Amino acid sequence: MVLNVVVCLKQIPNPDLQFQISPDGKDIRRDALNYKLNGADEYALEEAVRIKEKQGGRVVAVTLGPKRTEQMLREALAKGADEAVRIAYDDPSAFDVGKNARLLAAAIRTLPHDLVLTGVQSDDYVNSATGGLLAGLLGLPHASVVTRVVVRERQLEVTCELEGGLQRVYALPLPALLTIQFGANTPRYAPLPAIMKAARQPIKELGPAALGLVGWDSIALPYSFGVRGLSPPAAKGHAEMVTGSVEEQAKRLAQMLRDKGFVRR
Amino acid sequence: MKGVLIIAEHLEGRLAPSTPELITTGRSLAAALGGAARIAVLGSGVRELADRLAGYTLDVLLAEHPALAEYTGDGYVRAVRGIVESNSPRAILVAHTSQGYDFASALAGAMDLPLVTNCLGLDVDGDRLVATRRLLNEKVQAKVEIHSERPIVVTMRPGAEKPMGPGRGMMTVTAVPVVIEPSAIRETFLRLERPQVQDIDLSGADIIVSAGRGIQKKENLVLIEEFAKAIGGVVGASRPLTDMDWLPKTRQVGQSGKTVRPKLYVACGISGAMQHVAGMKDASLIVAINTDPTAPIFEVAHVGFVADVLKLLPATLKELKA
Ligand SMILES: Cc1cc2nc3c(=O)[nH]c(=O)nc-3n(C[C@H](O)[C@H](O)[C@H](O)COP(=O)(O)OP(=O)(O)OC[C@H]3O[C@@H](n4cnc5c(N)ncnc54)[C@H](O)[C@@H]3O)c2cc1C
Ligand SMILES: Nc1ncnc2c1ncn2[C@@H]1O[C@H](COP(=O)(O)O)[C@@H](O)[C@H]1O
Question: Architecture of A3-218 per CATH?
Fold first, then answer.
């Protein structure tokens, strides 16, 4: 059974970085960030490509974000996506997950979709909400935190992770939406010829009109949303920090382990 | 439109630890709104659970139906839709757990409701709900506000609030009608799978040295093992290491792995993502080693070393042998 798979990919600032807050306090400073494909989305993309390779069909990678996201979409093409679509909503921060999901849903409605995949969470905003919102908005059955997918004709069998290592297994009819968990597979590296080819492939750009909107702000929202402000987190119980050279730090650590009785000798 | 509706989470007759925390949040939010908090229990044969919840001194709505015997997104959305339509709460509180992600967002999508997730705190400011969240691996705090005429769906991060203990009085349990045609539920529950017990059991260990992605290469695990041995500990790990099969799944500490309470926990090259912290925050002594001074692990650690773990551990081993 041939499947049309849509996979939602988000480009995020590398979370290993240190962040500064912009002068207006409404966003982080974005002038010197490096961006990458969101962690869980690497697994969602790989799952999409594997399903296509097994079943036949097409994988369309969709993102909502500024021009810089094209680089991520090319990476997805090089890793096996057949088509890349960018919803050209250029708000660099795009904090409102409800608005993003409604725009993504509007775009997905224009694409054939037997299966929609997202990551379980975006590592920058950690909402874990886009997938479920899309399922609700698109009227699709869904499952979250999925670690295993088996396709059987018009049915899926999926394993969903709960807390503490428990898992629940469900059967779902297609079309359906799944949020894919870290570790669901082993993402591939893009082969060089595919990277070269992807560099020349067109990226489809969707403006508001393509989604039936007058402008980005004309999407109907049942609420108003605002960012009051960003700040460094209030340090709760900050650690006692041990400074100095590695040798000095090692001495302190060894001494502490001895003092507390963790070293028997 | 003043009340707060809390959705209880339970599995195999046991309440999720996040539910009493939601009760705490729900009651203070309801007080700020000038309304009452209620809790809904969905399931089949869960009367006893509902009675137990009534002991937390809030009214319980009991939604029983054979189709709710196991959690499904469709089943829960149907049942809660009915409750929301007849109660019109101002906010619907759900735990930010695996089941919570699945349900809360789908409810918001299906009913076209506002949604804010993974919150650490909630305030009311006039007609606005103000939520405190964390971004970018805990490194930035954000306050966002939502104003709506419709109930706002909120998920609260487990551990953000102290759990409410049962009170003195008993409140009422009201059965609410649930209409679900079996065909309306498209997800079919097949089975629950438990982790296989092999290898060692971390949850009983007194000393754990855990490795994270910061150790860079699988070969460097030898160093972690040597250090653990020197202090009589066992080796644990963050999730990426068990995902990559560097260590068996049984060594994973965190939300989807083991919850540990050792006397000493040494976090080596672990950033301190909320899902990892959920599994180790109650250790008596937490030592963190990380090259990034802004890594959130230093927020839960008692003692922190901004250092390259691949250098600090060999140097410490030398000191210990000296
Ligand atoms: C539903 C769900 C469940 C999850 N369950 C779990 C779980 O149970 N357990 C878990 O651990 N995670 C879990 N995760 C994943 C979690 O979100 C993080 O992705 C994970 O904990 C990150 O692991 P890490 O800290 O090893 O890696 P990273 O976040 O990549 O951090 C590596 C750290 O190493 C530091 N570093 C780099 N080089 C060095 C060096 N030479 N010396 C010292 N430090 C260095 C870096 O500064 C960085 O802070 C879950 C995620 C989801 C969505
Ligand atoms: N701007 C976006 N463009 C495309 N996909 C997105 C976007 N934001 C979120 N997603 C998808 O939704 C998942 C969950 O994100 P979140 O709900 O923000 O935690 C991500 O892993 C992506 O698959």
Answer: 3-Layer(aba) Sandwich (3.40)
